[in-house]
Amino acid sequence: MPDWVDHQPYPSEIPDAEASCIANGSCRLLNDIQVSLCSPEQAWHCRTVQRVLTREGAERVAHVVAEFDPGFQRIEVHFIRVIRGNERIEHAKPEVFQLLRRETNLERLVFDGRLTASLLIPDVRIGDIVEVCVTVYGSVPVLGGRYVGWATFDGFHPWFESRQRLVRPRARRIFMKEYNGPPECAVATNADVEDSRWQIVGQRRREAEALTPPWSILHPSLQFSEFASWNEVARLLAPFYESDRLPDELAAEVDRLAVAHQDPAERAIEWLRFVQRELRYFAFSLGEGGLTPRALEAIWSARFGDCKDAATLYAAGARRLGLEACAALVSTTQGFALDEMIPSSDAFNHCIVRLRLNEVSYWLDPTMAVQSGTLQNVFQPHAGWALVLRPETTDLEKMGGDEPLHILHQEDEVTFGPRRDSPAILRRRIDCSFWAADGVRNAIANEGTSGYSQATLKEMRSLWPGAVETSPIEVRDDTASNNITLVLSYEIPDCWKPGDDGSRLDFGIASGHSRELQPLPPVQRESAIYLGRPRKFTSYLRLNMPGSWKGDGWLRRFEASCVQYSDSFRVDGRTITNSRELTVDAWMLPAKETEAYNGVAKKLQEDLLIIWARERFGKIRPWIGIKGRLFNGIRNVWHAIWIAWLLIIGLKVIVFVLR
């Protein structure tokens, strides 16, 4: 056991009212994390204590795993004990461990070389207490010994007692920021060392809320960093991304592209497409902590790389083309919260490129599938804040992504035949832009036009099982404006379905808006509501009816502060039209607007427009309802009475004449 580690007693029994720390058949008694910066190598110490409550709990607690990166870390297992009454059974023996290279991120095309020390403790019983104690030594080499880290008191999976400790030389300045009211710090100092401790006992469980913004810090937390500014982070990492020595073969490709395209904007976008097309994604990060790219020669010779490799390659080629480009670090989850954090190298999980042209910044991602459009309208997928990796960088830079983009417009025209068994003809046109257009192109590239058409037909048949495609899908791709149009034609036999009471016929058609917003439970919530990227959807439906139709129209509007939805319906003779529009103006909505949000979301779920009809003498006619049928019945009776009177009068006249 390291001499700096301090193990304090813990309660082996908890009050009956304490249920937050009980889950999955075990009681989480203690989570004790201690970090020491007083040795040449950083040390992270962890002790956990759990009581087994059920058989399922025994299965979970008995499996002990500890993960580390052998490139720069080593691990010591101090003890793994089963406490049964007064008996202590030790299981931490070197020969019982299995060292596994699990590569849990391999399906995400990430190979990081991390190892897992695994042990299945034998003979764990209900009522046992299992103690596990390990220390991991080492830190990411590129940081040069600087410390960055977090201490989090997880409210979703709380322990009865949670302890956090940081031991540091007083000569090392560690910056710290608190989030969500962590416990007060108890500090002890001597001449050279400061010992800081935080402790929570009986933390209440917090239930996860749907649609919480991914950048939200939800639990009591502490952020630590030895970086005094974002400039320090940029100056440390920038040199690793500034190589300009392209392999000869690649340099020749760049020069050919320069000859073919004289305009700087064209060079920038064509070079982006070249990298996206030629460099497949695969992260090969062994022993460097995921912060630095490989050499350009290694990247190009393998024709694969991760985000750091792709950004470095693009930036080097762009500079050869006479463009101002460099790598930039972003976070796909914490992007909007980065400016609220203290400077740190561990705030990022992705690397892209910042291109400057005519005093405008473009945020390009070479790891994406091949994108269409010009530099001005190519979709820039990342938002929030970025750290530009230049030595002169002083602060984070704000990216765009706040304006709603009109990404999809759908027009449907349905023509009905005169009879119930007449098939309906549906012609659908879908206009996609920005990321929606890129998504359709990539789907067609991967599946082929036929495969994409079959997938679309399958979706159609979920509503109309007998639908058939009457002509091949038509694709009109305007790559310059980054728009793609799909035209689809279908025949829908047996389109009229019996209504609930059997006397009515129904035809239903959906606009597809229902997937955009998810209704939330009608309870008070703490977190803001995540809406996704600002966007706009529109749809227009025209129904050509078999005869003059009847019905009242409407214009309905539903909105919250950042979400607007409108639905208009009109009947005009033989034509019925329905227009819908959804606009999301912001990435999130305040929690206090949950009710207004649900008002919009629930209306979107009512996506199916149903037209009512009836069959009369084999023909499709407008539905007239109970009152209409009663009126028709009375009218028919009067007609019958008048006809009867006319027949009687006619007979009398005939009889009179014959006399």
Structure explained in plain terms:
The chain crosses the membrane at residues 637-658. By secondary structure, this protein is an alpha+beta fold. It folds into four domains: 22-226, Sandwich (Immunoglobulin-like); 233-398, Roll (C8orf32 fold); 405-616, Jelly Rolls; 626-659. The protein has nine helices and 38 strands. Strands 1, 2, 3, 5, 6, 10, 12, 14 and 15 form a nine-stranded mixed β-sheet that branches. The chain has an eight-stranded mixed β-sheet with strand order 27-28-26-25-32-35-34-33, with helices on one face. The longest helix has 34 residues, at 625-658. The radius of gyration is 34 Å and the shape is globular. Mean pLDDT is 91; it is low at 626-639.
At CATH level 3, the topology of the largest domain is Jelly Rolls
* CATH first level of the largest domain: Mainly Beta
Helix content: 10-25%
What gyration radius follows from the Cα positions, in whole Å? 34 Å
In DSSP terms (H or I, runs of 4 or more residues), the helix count works out at 9
Distance between the termini: 133 Å
Largest sheet, if any?
A: 9 strands, mixed
Instruction: Give the number of DSSP strands.
Output: 38
Instruction: Compute the average pLDDT.
Output: 91
Structural class: alpha+beta
> Which CATH architecture of the largest domain is right?
Sandwich
The domain count comes to: 4
In terms of per-residue confidence, which ranges show pLDDT below 50 for 5 or more consecutive residues? 626-639
Strand content: 35-45%
**C-alpha geometry:** globular
Pfam family, one: DUF3857
Keywords: Membrane, Transmembrane, Transmembrane helix
InterPro entries: DUF3857, Papain-like_cys_pep_sf
Protein name: DUF3857 domain-containing protein
